[in-house]
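check this:
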Amino acid sequence: MARGNVRRTVREVVYAAYERRLMRRLDPSQAPHHVGVMIDGNRRWARAFGAESADGHRAGADRLLEFLGWCDDAGVQIVTVYLLSTDNLQRPERELAPLIEIIENVTSRICETGRWQVRPIGALDLLPAATTRHLKEAAETTRATEGTTVNLAVGYGGRQELADAVRALLQQHAGRGTSIEELADVLDVEHIAEHLYTAGQPDPDLVIRTSGEQRLSGFLLWQSANSEFFFCDVLWPDFRRIDLLRALRSYAARERRFGA
C-alpha cells in the first residue's frame, strides 16, 4: 500500500475512534432543539481545486444532506439553513442561475428522503417564479412528515424579515380597523415575533458558521438574540460529523444566560 494511502487510512481510523468517543460523551438531553447553520465556504473550496463556483455549491449541497442526517441522529428537531441571502440575489446571472438550480435540486433531494419537513423562509417574492413555486410545493409535499423540520432560508435577509414582519403586522391591524395610535399603545415584541418567517417555532439554541468567518451576515437577526454561536475554520464542503459533534459538545458545556 502506498505511503499516502496508509496515512489516510490511519487518519480515518483515528477520526472514527474520536467520533465514537464524542458521541458516547454527548448527553441527548442536552442537544439543542433548534440549530441554525451558515454554510459558508463553497466558492473558496472550489477555487482551491481550480473548479467553478457551482462545483463548490454542488459539493456543499451533498454535504447538507449528510448534515441533516447527523442532526437527526443527534436529536435536533429544527434545522435552519442559510442557502441564499437577499444580497446574493444581486449577483450576475451567470453566477446566480446555477446556484438557484442547485438549491432547487437539493430541495427535491431533501423531499425525496421522506425524512424531513421542508419549510422555506425568506422573501420568496424576490425569487424567480419557478423557484418560488418549487419551494412552496416542497413545503406542501412534506407537510405531514414527522421528522426534523428543515427551514430553507432562500432569498433571506434579517433586515428584510423584520421589514416584512412589521408590514404584515400593520396590514393585519389595518384590516381590523386599528389606528396607529391604538397599535402603538399595545405593540410589544411578541406581536412582531408572530409575523416573522419562523413564527410558531422556538428560536435557535445554537448557530454554526463555517469557513472561519465570525459574523451573522444578517442571519436570524431577531431570533438569535439569545443563541449560542460556534464558529469553525473548515469550509462547508469539508464539514464532517466530527465538526458537528464538537459544536454540540461546546454547546452542552456552556451555561446559558438569557438577557445577560
The first helix runs from residue 3 to 25. The beta strands are 34-38, 78-85, 117-121, 149-156, 206-209, 228-231.
